[in-house]
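User: C-alpha cells for TctD-like protein, please.
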Amino acid sequence: MYKNILIVDDDICLAHAIKLYLSSDERKIFIVDDANSALNLLGLYHFDLVISDIMMPKIGGYDFLIKLRLDPSFLNLPVIFLTAKGMTSDRIKGYDLGCNAYLTKPFHPSELLSIVNNILLNFNSRQYLSKFKFLESLELNSLLDNNKILCKFTSREISILKLLAKGMMNKEIALNLNLGIKNVEKYVSRLLSKTNTRNRTELAQLSWSFNLIKGE
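Assistant: Done. Predicted C-alpha cells:
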C-alpha cells in the first residue's frame, strides 16, 4: 500500500523538485503552498508524513505544528521541517514543538530521502507511551477521578497546563499569569519531569485528557 506524503511550502518550484525526488510507486505526493490548505487537506485524506517549511505567509510552520499536535488526530503524524532557519535555537524550538526531523536549506536530496525512508519504515512500530507511562506511574486504575490526578500538581502548575492546552507559548503564559519568562520555563521543565513527557505538546495533550479547559 502506498504512503501519502504532504509537502507544505510556498516555494512551489522547490516543492515540485522534492516531489520528483521522493516519488516512487509506493508513494503519493501532495503539494500545498500554505498551512491553511494543508490543514484542510489533512482533514480530507489520511497522510503518513508531512514535510513543511517554517517561513510561510499567514500561518508559519511552528504555528502549523502546534495546531497539529493539539489535535488528537494528528498527535503522532510525523513532521519534517525543511527550512532556511538554521540557528540552533530554531532547531530546538522545532523539536520542542514535536517535529520528528529538522533539515536546513540548502540540503542534500539524499539526506532528505534517507530521513523520509527511515520515518516511513520505522514510525508505525514506534510507541510514544510517555503519557501512558505517566498515567501508569500514578496507578491509573485507582486514580480515575480527575480530582485525584490533579492533586499531583500545584495550583500554579495547573494554571500553566491550562494555558499550554490553549497553545500559548512561554511569553504569552508569562504575560497572562504575570510571571517572568524564566519562571515559566522552570514550571514547564518541572511539569515535563513530573509527567515523563518529552515536550510541551505532550503536556498540552495531558491537559486535554484531564479536561482542564472544559467549559472555558
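User: Anything notable?

Assistant: Residues 130-209 form a domain with the Arc Repressor Mutant, subunit A fold (CATH 1.10.10.10).
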